[in-house]
Amino acid sequence: MQTVTVNAAQDQVIDAQLRAVQSGMGKGRLTGMDNNAAREAAEQFEAVFLSQMLAPMFETVPTDGFMGGGHAEQVYRGMMVEEMSKELAKQGGVGIADSVYREILKLQEA
Length: 110
Description:
Blueprint: H1 8-23, H2 32-59, H3 71-90, H4 96-109
């Protein structure tokens, strides 16, 4: 079984989102700007999740032919999966961002 690791950039995004949510706890209701930040954090979380789910799928695609493999293709595939995941999350994703957004709102109101 292969384990999926989160790269350092994704760790930083998740840590920043967690700090943002924790720093806002106990402040009452969100303002309009905070609502936008919460929504963006939820979409970023979904993008990271989707990236981790899509990466193993792209690792199984053979790399033969004119641009057949190598380090550069591995780097490109990683960037491509990350950007695809961001775009999927922006376009509605699979619903994770909506759930995360609702939970962030609940934490803010508590």
